[in-house]
Amino acid sequence: MVFTNVYEMITPPHVIKKSWFVDYFDGLQAKLYWNFTNIIGSGSSIIETGIDAGLRIQTGATDDNESGINFSDIRHYSQTGCVPHIVSDRDTGTRSRGGFSENVDMTNSFAFVENDPDDTFYQIVSDDGTTETTTDTSIVDDILVHRHKLELTSANIQLTMDGILESTKTTNRPDQPQQPFYAVKARAAGSHVGHIRYYEAYNT
Amino acid sequence: MVQSLYEKLYHPSVPASSRVVERFDGDVLDDRWNIHLQSGTSFDVDMLTGVDNGVEATINGEDLGQLDFNIRLHYSNTASVCIWVSKRVSTTTTQAWNGFHSNQALNSLQCAFFRNSTAETFIDLLTGDAGGVTAGNTSIPVDAVYHRYEVELRSSNCSARMEGILEVTNTANLPTVGQNPVFMVDNLGISGARTAQATYCEAYNT
Q1: What is the DSSP secondary structure assignment for residue B107, as one 8-state letter?
Q2: What letter would DSSP give residue B1?
Q3: The model's pTM
Q4: Measured between alpha carbons, how far is residue A157 from residues A20, A28, B140 in Å?
Q5: Are the CB atoms for B44 and B36 separated by under 8 Å?
Q6: β-bridge mates for residue A47, sequence order
Q7: What is the Cα gyration radius of chain A?
Q8: What is the CB-side half-sphere exposure of residue B79 using CA atoms within 13 A?
Q9: Which residue, B151, B154, B103, B157, is CA-closest to B130?
Q10: Using the beta-carbon criterion (under 8 Å), do A28 and B72 form an inter-chain contact?
């Protein structure tokens, strides 16, 4: 089917489109709508050269240093009806978290897919502003590129990895509007790295 | 109902590859682009007003300027596509290149791009590896009107389409390193202002 506009590729004409954005982390530098935050320590980010390289985010040089990107607390996405698609990977000493957060430093509510060498499996991690809990998938943590899709609804959070529904979480879900978020945390001494090459978010 | 561009473009089990879609819209050039003056007096890049106008690039003095990703080589030399909608505007001693390149020099090494040059008879496809260049003519005479240009790099060849029609396939001197999109205007060594325009660029790995 040929479309004459992008709108109708993904939204019927009778439906008023809600917030939506797509970023391939292409070109010379990260788009200006991203805010880089050092949560702990002093990290960096750069569009890396190399086929399918995307954005490289590096932590500071100390264990537990953490840095990430966000929308500087501009929260367009509904905690009860939104989806992010994320394509990312990490190195062996890094915990990565991708999804949505209420705040730039994860001090309030959020919903992420987490890939942590200190755990065994990929997890959904969420926080309702008070309590953070996790739900495992069956996928063992790794350093490979995966496609992650989180769907936040009024009933649960579902994580689909590489097209397969892996986990559903019903507890401690975010209670406030959210912003796109991706962060990496050093799980060992030295600077550690994650790459993100696709982020798409929309309200359902 | 599919609501994501992702699910329109990719199978759900496939992690998305690099892609850029640039419409050259708005007040200023998107900051994904590097404005590179190889030599010459200046290289001016301005957004144009007017229906279906995009960006205009003008080289002043002698030599060339180009838009690129400053050698962020996200695109595979063996499996990628680059589409440009562009035109050469100046009609004397000017060449405009569009497609893939891996460096910022006035050469055709490690590249795959169209050349629309007043020094040639036909618009042609140039492919280059580290040591040599192959030029293959299309059937389209050089001109100063908009075209849709598409180069596709594969492991064994590079095909070039204009307005969706396969015009030429090069099999020799294919690039051996990753690529970034490039849009270049050059005055063929004759001093003066030379201009080219573009309204669309899309590149992706296949």
Answers
A1: S
A2: -
A3: 0.90
A4: 19, 35, 55
A5: no
A6: A55
A7: 16
A8: 6
A9: B103
A10: yes
Our measurement of the distance from residue A185's CA atom to the centroid of its chain's CA atoms, rounded to an integer in Å, reads 13
The count of residues in chain B is 206
Residues A110, A126: contact at Cβ < 8 Å? yes
SS3 content of chain A, % helix, strand, coil (to 5): 0, 50, 45
Average pLDDT for B86-108: 92
Average pLDDT over residues B35-50: 90
Rounded Cα distance, A27 and A30, in Å: 8
Closest Cα to residue B175, out of B152, B198, B204?
B152
Distance from CA of B22 to the nearest CA of A (A): 10
**Do residue A198 and residue B16 have CB atoms under 8 angstroms apart?**
yes
Q: How many other C-beta atoms lie within 10 A of the C-beta of residue B76? A: 23
pLDDT of B138-183, one tens digit each?
999 999 999 999 999 999 999 999 999 999 999 999 999 999 999 9
Specify the CATH number of the domain B29-205. 2.60.120.200
How high is the pLDDT of residue B51?
Answer: 86
* Contact yes or no for A28 and B32 at CB 8 A: yes
Tell me the average pLDDT across B173-198.
95
Rg over alpha carbons for chain B, rounded to the nearest Å, is 16
Cβ-based neighbour number of residue A178 at 10 Å: 26
The proportion of chain A whose per-residue pLDDT surpasses 70, expressed as a percent, equals 100
C-alpha closest to that of B95 among B47, B143, B131: B143
Decide if B183 contacts B89 (C-beta within 8 A): no
Task: Please give the Cα distance from B99 to B184 (Å, whole number).
Answer: 9
Where do the structural domains in chain B lie, given as residue ranges? 29-205
Interface with A, mutate which of B3, B82, B155 (most A CBs under 10 A): B3
- Hey, what domains does chain A have and what are their CATH numbers? 19-203 (2.60.120.200)
B39 band by pLDDT with thresholds 50, 70 and 90: confident
For residue A30, pLDDT over 70 is answered with: yes
